[in-house]
Fold this sequence. Notes:
Blueprint: E1 2-6, H1 10-26, E2 31-35, H2 42-45, H3 84-90, H4 92-96, H5 100-103, H6 119-134, E3 142-146, E4 150-156, E5 159-164, E6 167-171, E7 173-176, H7 187-199, E8 202-204, E9 222-226, H8 230-238, E10 246-249, E11 255-258, E12 265-269, H9 297-307, H10 312-333, H11 345-354, H12 360-366, H13 377-381, H14 393-408, H15 418-421, H16 423-426, H17 428-436, H18 442-460, H19 465-476, E13 480-482, E14 488-492, E15 497-501, E16 508-510, E17 512-515, H20 529-536, E18 542-547, E19 550-557, E20 565-567, E21 573-579, H21 602-623
Parallel strand pairs: 1-2, 1-7, 2-3, 7-21, 8-17, 9-12, 9-17, 12-13
Antiparallel strand pairs: 4-5, 5-6, 10-11, 14-15, 15-16, 18-19, 20-21
Helix pairs in contact: 1-6, 1-21, 14-19
Protein name: FAD/NAD(P)-binding protein
Pfam families: NAD_binding_9 (PF13454)
Amino acid sequence: MKIAIIGAGPRGIAVTDRLIAKANQENINIDITLFDPYSISGRVWDPAIKLNHSLIMNTIVDQISFFADNSIQNPGPIRQGPNFYEWIQQLAPDYLKKTEVGRRYLDKIALTKNDFAVRGLAGLYEQWFFEDVKKQVTSNSSISYLQKEIQKINRLNDQFKLDFSADSENFDFVFMALGYSDTHLNDEERRFSDFAKRDNLIYIAPEHPSEADLSKIPAEEAVIIRGLGLSFFDYMSLLTEGRGGKFVETKKGQLIYEPSGKEPIIFAGSRRGLPLHARGINQKEANEEYKPRFFTENNLKNLKNASGKINYTDFFDLFDKEIQYKHYENLIRDPEFNNLIHKREDKFFRELRRTGASNYAEIAKNYHIPEKQIWDWHKILHAASIPTASDNFKDWYLNYLDEDIADASKGNKKAPYAGAFDITRDVRNIIRNILEDNYFSLDDLKRFLSEFNSISTLISVGPPVIRIKQLRALIACHIVNMMGPNIHIENDPRNKSFFASSQRPETVNAKNLIEARLPSNNNDLANQALRVSLNEHNWFHKTTFSNNDQYLVINAAQINPKTYQVINRNGQIVASLYSAGIPHEDISWFTTILPRPGVNTIIYKEAAIISEQIINDIKKRQLS
């Protein structure tokens, strides 16, 4: 049986690995072909992309492994192998010397287990793993890889015809791991783009920062960057270190920036006006996860069983109690604050356990906990709205970042805030199960997608603390200027520039504008040839949830979230066609992730399910 895997990134490789393992176990012959226009490892991690030699990952090397393990339900045969850190220490030096691309990364492997590698090095680990998978193939099966982009897909009797370059091939099964698609510009982006072309300005629409052409942005000229997420930190790095500037650490551990003179002057802002919180310095083992007390599967299941659904308020109350309890637990144990409540810890935590999080602030005040250490969601989510127009915003921002750095430096288990934020990462599987099992009503699902996603991103998706230290240094030397919340950008024809304002009085005109975000996940805007083909067949389409006379439409292409089978516009499963990952975000939750050992990682959970179905289907066909 012939199986096509479209996308040779982490998901595609994981499914390949599980298919081979299960085919060997069942003594079934399969022929797998992987397609990707980029190298094995895919677009994000491709070591051949020049900037992947310098842009860093957002996960420590010890928490990445491509080897499936027994934490995965029904994984099939597993084999032992090095995680990313172990590979770097044991095998990378010899492996990298074998190729010209690999040799460029030999200076990037002096890492501890809690360090963040450059992205291309992760791609090389994935390439090594792919070679290891090929060694598991029996004589009657095969794996091949074509560095080609699939242009079109069609049904041909019981098979799929895939068109690529000037060729085509038929397959019995297709799995798609497509990642972010290039997209058409939305209306606002098109206005900016047309204006830039007309007046000779620079407009960089949403795209992968590693692929953006920043060379035309002049030194010492203003550039507006809209967005303060992870893409912002990539652009920040590329426009500073990438232009020859250097960060130097002082004796006090702060960074100062030594400009090269080639940097533009950056004006950055977003809706909140805040960068993502720094990720706490790692204190966890590779497979170590926080075990919740309140936000448990049983408690959530009990809430659902009581009324048939769970409402968002009850969901968030449990999450809120969990994260705040962890905050106060860490606070009381912090040497800086360990005398706050003297010998009344047991009574304090007993009171917290007996009530909801909405009462925690009052209890904390009764125990004379300082106001700055009392959990306040408004201050966490809207801190940049607190300074008044007369306040020195730069000084406020430097102090805000200092506090974030100091807290994150206490670690992702022990820090009062970063340690509490980090548990969000450890309960993601619980949240995924809630969505997969349809716990929410439509109104509550809408609230979850709009409110909780935003909260989760701010507190749990942040960059390594080094990036926040770098941002602080760049603000201090006036290379980066932070704008207030609710940044608004418009064309300014009179001045032939872009004009940016916010809820603060400062404004700026600039001839350069960067959208610091990845392309939209809106299925209707996708313009890659394969995505267009899938849309034309009505195999990919926006997902509509309905309940009586209520409807909710989300941008994700529809799949069955438990089987990853594609569902067409008529609600029917497209037999033998599977898809997982980013095109289905919000059906599957938080799909932008690398495989982590020992925690039932979603990438191998998907791979185990998809490979099991394909192998079982092959067995049925052989019996018929």
